[in-house]
Design a protein that fits this description.
With 379 residues, the chain is an alpha+beta fold. The chain has a single domain, classed as B-lactam Antibiotic, Isopenicillin N Synthase, Chain (Jelly Rolls, Sandwich), CATH 2.60.120. Helices cover 29% and strands 17% of the residues. Helix 1 packs across helix 4, helix 2 packs across helix 4 and helix 9 crosses helix 10. The radius of gyration is 20 Å and the shape is globular. It starts with 14 loop residues before the first strand and ends with a helix. Keywords: Iron, Metal-binding, Oxidoreductase. Belongs to the iron/ascorbate-dependent oxidoreductase family. It holds the Pfam family DIOX_N. One of its GO terms (molecular function) is metal ion binding.
Length: 379
């Protein structure tokens, strides 16, 4: 996950009121919403959305299950361990992942749109990356979780589609332009960051919930900050290298650009580096990120070339938010930070499979022995 080319010198995260773009809004309100969204897309890469249309019950039900879910005994978590799943779905414990070379202090359950498996080792003819498609693991001792998670994934899938229509309009494109890039399977994490041992601990490794990174696995991320507002930790990096707090605003989702969207928009809409810093002994934190999936058979040629003509002359320099589309942007400003583009593999699916195997090497060695050595040693 890259950390280069942070976003412009924002000092706070813009709030986009989606009610202004509803069918009952005036043309002036809708245009105001689109202008604000365009600025967030091209100059920040991070935004809040409010009045988003996700039912409150779907959100509150997820928030309510989190403490009990993470309080389950170890044997219940082991039952659905990530190591059981070739789809990399299930539970992983504190310190199981590293970011920026250091262990992240979080435990998490990973789920996805419930789908059947299509990859068959004996049958052949199906790319190996299609093995990433498949079913969830559900804790047998907590049957209530499945309907809550599936409802939430359904509602966030619909939100993602509504949002993409607005994004396309803000970028002067037909409403469903970006739909052809989407996967049928989206991913969800339920995350618990433990409180640190010492509130005054200056050891950055001890306070790393998640290290600095850009989201490399999804199209867009929709984050529910599921702890009380006084519990902070999420920060985004601006161009001056300053970390900007992203506090919990009631009724909001934090939305940020994934690196695949940066590729397709030709670097006009950049993914922004962010991190989570643990606050102290009284501040355990829960969060629920939803990653809008990218179709696994997307090639680099399609990703780069599909909308290149629209974005290649786009201006996002000082004072430019896309309104002056014939003012070319300097190539140095347009540099795209993408492991997909810089890597050796031509499809998004294979690039993602490599990332998963390198992040969870025990799972990769167990299920993907035929490519394991290649993927972990191809730097």
């Amino acid at each position: 996950m890259g950390q280069q080319a942070p976003a412009s010198n924002f000092t706070e995260i813009p709030i986009i009121n989606l009610a202004l773009a509803s069918g009952s809004s005036s043309p002036a309100d809708r245009e105001s919403c689109l202008t604000q969204l365009r600025h967030a897309l091209t100059n920040v890469g991070f935004l809040y959305i409010v009045n988003h249309g996700v039912p409150e019950t779907a959100i509150s039900n997820v928030v309510e299950i989190l403490p009990r879910l993470f309080a389950m005994p170890d044997e219940a978590k082991d039952e659905v361990a990530l190591g059981n799943s070739p789809q990399f779905l299930g539970f992983s414990g504190n310190g199981a992942e590293t970011t920026a070379g250091r262990r992240d202090r979080r435990e998490q359950f990973e789920f996805a749109t419930e789908l059947g498996e299509v990859w068959d080792d004996a049958a052949g003819g199906v790319p190996l990356y299609e093995r990433l498609r498949g079913p969830n693991q559900w804790p047998s001792g907590y049957p209530e979780i499945r309907p809550v998670v599936e409802t939430y994934i359904h509602e966030l899938t619909l939100l993602g589609e509504r949002f993409l229509r607005l994004v396309a309009e803000a970028l002067f494109l037909p409403p469903e332009t970006f739909f052809s890039f989407l996967s049928e399977q989206h991913r969800l994490k339920l995350v618990h960051y433990p409180a640190t041992d010492n509130e005054t601990d200056s050891d950055s490794e001890q306070r790393q919930g998640v290290g600095p990174h850009k989201d490399s696995s999804g199209w867009w991320t929709f984050l529910l900050q599921a702890s009380p507002p006084h519990v902070r930790g999420l920060q985004a990096l601006n161009k001056q290298g300053a970390w900007v707090d992203v506090p919990n605003i009631a009724g909001s989702f934090v939305v940020n650009i994934g690196q695949a969207f940066e590729v397709v928009t030709n670097g006009v809409c950049k993914a922004t580096t962010h991190r989570v810093v643990l606050a102290g002994p009284e501040s355990e934190r829960f969060s629920v990120p939803f990653f809008q999936g990218v179709r696994r058979d997307l090639t680099r040629g399609k990703a780069v070339g599909s909308l290149k003509g629209h974005f290649e002359s786009w201006s996002t320099g000082p004072g430019g938010d896309g309104l002056h589309a014939h003012q070319p942007q300097l190539e140095t400003e347009r540099e795209i930070d993408s492991p997909f583009l810089k890597g050796k593999y031509d499809t998004w699916g294979e690039s993602q499979l490599r990332t998963k195997i390198r992040s969870h090497r025990d799972v990769g060695r167990k299920f993907y022995g035929q490519v394991f050595e290649e993927y972990v040693n191809d730097d």
